[in-house]
């Protein structure tokens, strides 16, 4: 009888203990699923202390509110469903590019269309789908196994323990910054706090963009042209994509990948020391066409662009693009009198357009009876996937990505990747040369300026970086090609400007100089215009070469050199 009574008393205690550990393991597994991207990222990069910290901080973040949801534990875990949608995406970024999901990657995703996404994920779609299905199944299965509620005492212990652990971690690692700043950094740098914080910053940025038109509606440069010319005037600004100066024949590269422009060498002025203002397109392009700089980037949201200055000076303005110009770039493109985008819009029917397809649009504009014209062409240039940027006729350097399927970060196959990249420059050379020929045929007073938004990494050193995804940009992402062609009538009319350009061609230049130089080329001025920033001016002064990297950090170009 006594034995019969003792057994049930011991059994529930054993079951309770087992159930407790089972629930703890469930919770830790769920936490691991939520923190899997930074954990895997730390494993890949060998940063094991960061791995532990990432897991602990995520654990604290998730467990701290448990007391508030003690009667709705399953509901609490379901609340993370909108967040975990981004976990596999973050994991994909970590595995492929060794980077977590951050604000700049969100901006890139927002500006990326279906075709570009497929190009980046080429060869990984099935893996990603399998990861997605497996991840969601595991999360839902584990959540269903959790208890619906826990006691007040246990929930309070869990919440207080999580908060105290978080505070302790902050105290231990806060060295060069205050406790308050370290606390904020811990909250915003670890998942899911990082996702929530970066989503807030992204939304804030979109609001600024949406408010831009209203913000600048009364903005004026009060620009005017200080010369009167009898001939037609055509000024063209070509914005390249992901082209780095090091891989151009006309800038000393050993490969013959700019033969057409090499034939025009005597007509070109090449600027040998030019640095981009931003490491991604969304940051870099606005600094080419506005007065914003890496140190004064918020000016993007409070002023209009070079297009408005040309319009005020009496020019008809055009924006021609082979990209989907969303976000900040699009808000400036809309200032132009007319916008043209290549018609396929990256649909599956025709995956991508080639930059040469912009030529008929340019030709049509040049044939119009318009005396003063300013045209911006935004090309796709050397954007990855490199093999999609040029036709087979330009597949000169082989083996290339036209025939080989290669992971874009695989340094063992870098020869194939570099071959395709050099072929994109070969094709860009043909496109720019064709533009020059068309403009030259008009016999107008004219210039064509080419500058890339940013450069590209090509496994150049022991870091084995590729593309332009590192938040701390390399010197290869920062260094960009910049050159100018001018017609004989322009050279005759503006000898002083040509002399000044030649004098300044090897001086340190930043992309923020493009705005001032382009206006000065066209003899456009406005009150208090800073001519010391124009390469066409005799008062030009070398600008600080600064580039905006990830998390809005500004870097000196010289500090990036290896």
UniProtKB/TrEMBL annotation:
Keywords: Cell membrane, Membrane, Transferase, Transmembrane, Transmembrane helix
UniProt membrane topology term: Multi-pass membrane protein
Cellular component GO terms held in the UniProt record: plasma membrane
Residue ranges of domain Sulfatase N-terminal in the record: 234-521
InterPro entries: Alkaline_phosphatase_core_sf, PEA_transf_C, PEA_transferase, Sulfatase_N
Main subcellular location of this protein, as a coarse class: membrane
One MF term in the entry's GO annotations: phosphotransferase activity, phosphate group as acceptor
Protein name from the UniProt record: Phosphoethanolamine transferase
Localization, UniProt: Cell membrane
Species, as recorded: Pedobacter cryophilus
Any matching Pfam family: Sulfatase
Residue stretches spanning the membrane: 20-42, 48-68, 75-97, 124-142, 154-174
GO BP term (any one): lipopolysaccharide core region biosynthetic process
Domain of life, per lineage: Bacteria
CDD domains: LptA
């Amino acid at each position: 009888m006594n034995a019969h009574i003792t057994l049930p008393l011991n059994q529930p205690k054993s079951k309770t203990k087992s159930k407790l550990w089972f629930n703890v393991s469930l919770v830790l597994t769920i936490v691991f699923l939520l923190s899997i991207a930074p954990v895997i990222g730390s494993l890949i990069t060998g940063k094991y202390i960061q791995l532990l910290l990432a897991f602990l901080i995520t654990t604290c973040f998730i467990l701290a509110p448990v007391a508030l949801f003690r009667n709705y534990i399953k509901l609490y875990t379901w609340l993370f469903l909108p967040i975990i949608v981004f976990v596999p995406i973050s994991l994909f970024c970590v595995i492929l590019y060794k980077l977590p999901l951050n604000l700049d990657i969100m901006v890139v995703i927002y500006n990326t269309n279906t075709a570009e996404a497929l190009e980046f994920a080429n060869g990984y779609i099935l893996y990603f789908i399998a990861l997605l299905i497996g991840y969601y199944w595991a999360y839902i299965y584990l959540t269903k196994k959790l208890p619906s509620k826990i006691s007040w005492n246990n929930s309070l212990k869990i919440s207080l323990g999580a908060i105290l652990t978080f505070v302790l971690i902050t105290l231990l690692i806060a060295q060069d910054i205050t406790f308050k700043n370290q606390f904020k950094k811990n909250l915003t740098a670890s998942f899911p706090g990082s996702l929530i914080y970066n989503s807030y910053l992204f939304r804030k940025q979109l609001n600024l963009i949406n408010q831009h038109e209203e913000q600048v509606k009364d903005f004026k440069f009060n620009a005017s042209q200080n010369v009167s010319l009898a001939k037609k005037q055509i000024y063209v600004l070509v914005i390249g994509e992901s082209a780095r100066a090091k891989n151009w024949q006309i800038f000393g590269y050993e490969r013959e990948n700019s033969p057409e422009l090499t034939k025009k060498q005597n007509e070109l002025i090449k600027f040998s020391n030019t640095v981009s203002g931003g490491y991604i397109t969304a940051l870099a392009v606005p600094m080419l066409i506005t007065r914003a700089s890496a140190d004064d980037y918020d000016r993007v949201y409070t002023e209009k662009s070079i297009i408005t200055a040309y319009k005020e000076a009496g020019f008809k303005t055009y924006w021609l693009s082979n990209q989907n110009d969303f976000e900040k770039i699009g808000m400036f493109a809309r200032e132009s009198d007319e916008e043209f985008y290549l018609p396929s819009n990256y649909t599956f029917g025709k995956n991508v357009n080639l930059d040469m397809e912009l030529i008929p649009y340019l030709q049509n504009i040049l044939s119009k009876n318009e005396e003063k014209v300013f045209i911006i062409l935004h090309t796709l240039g050397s954007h990855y996937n490199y093999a999609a940027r040029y036709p087979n006729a330009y597949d000169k350097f082989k083996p290339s990505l036209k025939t080989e399927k290669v992971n874009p970060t695989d340094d063992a196959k870098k020869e194939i990747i570099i071959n395709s990249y050099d072929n994109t420059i070969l094709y860009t050379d043909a496109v720019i040369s064709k533009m020059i020929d068309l403009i030259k045929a008009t016999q107008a007073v004219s210039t064509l300026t080419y500058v890339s938004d940013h450069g590209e990494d090509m496994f150049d050193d022991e870091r084995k970086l590729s593309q332009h995804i590192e938040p701390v940009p390399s010197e290869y992402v920062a260094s960009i090609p910049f050159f100018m062609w001018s017609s004989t009538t322009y050279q005759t009319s503006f000898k002083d400007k040509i002399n000044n350009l030649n004098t300044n061609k090897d001086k340190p230049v930043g992309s923020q100089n493009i705005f001032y130089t382009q206006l000065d080329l066209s003899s456009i001025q406005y009150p208090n215009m800073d001519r010391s920033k124009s390469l066409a001016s005799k008062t030009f002064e070398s600008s600080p070469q600064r580039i905006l990297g990830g998390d809005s950090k500004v870097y000196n170009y010289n500090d990036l050199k290896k």
